[in-house]
Write a structure and sequence with these properties.
- The chain is an alpha+beta fold.
- It has a domain of 194 residues.
- Helix content is 20%, strand content 24%.
- It contains four helices and 14 strands.
- The strands form three sheets. Strands 1-5-6-7-8-9-12-13-14 form a nine-stranded mixed beta barrel.
- Strand 13 and strand 14 form a beta hairpin.
- The longest helix has 22 residues.
- The N and C termini lie far apart (91 Å).
Length: 319
């Protein structure tokens, strides 16, 4: 019995030391690539009910006394309108819940403004309204349609920085080399290449999703992006970001099952101040499905043919 008592005391001491070590453990260190960089490779998803901005009347963080179901419905109604065709009543949308960051259920990705909304200038807000209105009235040709509708860039700003979550097809694949980090979006199956240790291309150069260069700061991949094409200014249907915007992103693997993605957006032409947000990416075993944008290439021709028909038969418009 005495020996048994010593054994239990020894185990208790070992347990106490283990708890103390855990309590004082440093930040998570990601596994390394063969060349020593933090390894982010694999399939990830930022799928969540949480989106960029917070609906009016919704708290920033869901507390213990809050009605979670009611808050999630309010957030969902702000993302997917319940308006019949194309809305929640006529299509299937995968179920989702608010994202949890640092143990808190967040109702928006934006963290720098009290109301969880983008701080537009008056001119920026008018510009956004004009671009949104154009989507319903300008059918002169394919060039007048927004880039996501033309399958040139992913919808919901899923790949162009800042990278936001879509309410479907929110998968990503990350591949790394010594010289680059490549991110593939499930939407449009597009690729974004972040060049490591390089410089931005010649000033004034414009590329889809911007010109991204990156470097490592310890456990964090820091990405600096400029040079957006003006055609993708309206990140349909979410928000506006101008061609002269400057976006800085920070990817940090905070655990084996999480990448913390933080970003800062500067765009004085449209925003009264720089604004910040943070998103979580979780590992996924789901495949990245083929994204058949405009399957059969019939959607855009059909849309334009419909517009020509309405022009030729104005008496039938609205029927």
């Amino acid at each position: 019995m005495a020996g048994s008592g010593i054994g239990w005391r020894a185990l208790a001491l070992v347990g106490a030391f283990s708890l103390a070590a855990s309590a004082h453990a440093g930040p998570y260190h990601a596994p390394r690539t063969p060349w020593g960089a933090p390894d982010f490779q694999g399939k990830w998803t930022n799928f969540s009910l949480t989106h960029l901005e917070r609906p009016a009347g919704v708290p920033a963080v869901v507390g213990k006394g809050d009605d979670l179901a009611a808050i999630e419905k309010a957030v969902s109604d702000g993302i997917i309108p319940d308006d019949g065709l194309g809305g929640r009543e006529s299509e299937w949308w995968p179920p989702s819940h608010l994202a949890v960051i640092d143990g808190q259920r967040r109702t928006a990705w934006i963290v720098s403004t009290p109301d969880g909304r983008i701080p537009y200038t008056a001119a920026g807000l008018e510009r956004r309204k004009a671009l949104r209105a154009k989507a319903f009235v300008d059918f002169d040709g394919p060039e007048s349609r927004n880039t996501s509708e033309r399958c040139l860039t992913p919808t919901f700003s899923a790949l162009s920085p800042p990278m936001l979550n879509a309410p479907y097809a929110a998968g990503y694949r990350i591949v790394q080399t010594r010289d680059a980090v490549v991110i593939q979006s499930e939407i449009n199956s597009d690729l974004r290449i972040v060049r490591l240790g390089g410089r931005h291309d010649a000033p004034g150069g414009r590329v889809w999703s911007g010109d991204s260069i990156g470097h490592w700061e310890g456990e964090t991949l820091v990405v600096d992006t400029v040079g957006f094409r003006p055609e993708e200014a309206f990140r349909a249907p979410v928000f506006l970001i101008g061609p002269d915007a400057h976006v800085v992103e920070r990817f940090t693997r905070t655990g084996k099952d999480e990448i913390r993605y933080a970003f800062t957006v500067e765009d004085p032409a449209n925003y009264a101040q720089a604004w910040k947000g943070e998103v979580v990416f979780k590992p996924t075993s789901d495949p990245l499905y083929e994204y058949a944008c405009h399957e059969g290439n019939n959607s855009l021709p059909g849309l334009l043919q419909g517009a020509r028909y309405v022009e030729a038969h104005p008496e039938k418009a609205g029927q």
